[in-house]
Amino acid sequence: MRTSDIVLPKPTPFYKAYIDVLGDVELLGMLERQLGNFPKFIESIPDDKMAYAYGPDKWTTVQVLLHIIDSERVFQYRALRFSRGDQTSLPGFDQDFYVPNSEAEKRSKESIIEEYQAVRESTISLYRSFGPSILSREGFASNLPWSVASLGFVICGHQKHHRNILRERYLL
């Protein structure tokens, strides 16, 4: 499935932006490409930039990295629920609660890479199991309709969005 194949029901500009940043890509190919690229990107971040925040009340580099991982876990869980036909409306999650409670400052770069790889491999395994009919299944989360496919693309686009921010504002 490609980004051009999905239609977000009543897309919000917030989530649509994560899909749009990808261009027209194939879902599994993008998940796998990011698994190959993102650990190298994390490794390339200078150690003295891991605790850097570009302004007051902004997350540090390491907090952004853990936010990417946490968000992927949440979106993956939603995809699992909807893929199995669960029509329970799922609540949102407050990233501003998650980030300060992540204890990111205690994490090594190596542990973040290891966790990212484990989470992404799990996402890829889950999405490999989905056929077209499952990818089109829908559910509600954060009071918004989602398809299983759109959640996969948002996982990829969310990561790319934050990688761009890290490059533009943190790694100058």
Question: Describe it for me?
Answer:
The protein has 172 residues and is mainly alpha-helical. It has seven helices and two strands, in the order ααααααββα. The protein has helices at 13-20, 27-44, 61-83, 95-98, 109-128, 132-135, 148-170, and strands at residues 138-141, 144-147. It has a two-stranded antiparallel ribbon with strand order 1-2. α1 crosses α7 (148-170).
Keywords:
two-stranded antiparallel ribbon; 5% strand; 172 residues; mainly alpha
The helicity comes to: 55-70%
Coarse shape: globular
The largest sheet is: 2 strands, antiparallel
Given the structure, what is the number of helices? Answer: 7
How many extended strands?
Answer: 2
CA gyration radius, whole angstroms: 16 Å
Round the mean pLDDT to the nearest integer and report it: 93
Q: Spans of 5+ residues with little confidence (pLDDT < 50)?
A: none
Q: What structural class is derived from the secondary structure elements? A: mainly alpha
- In what range is the share of β-strand residues? under 5%
Q: How would you spell out the order of helices and strands?
A: HHHHHHEEH
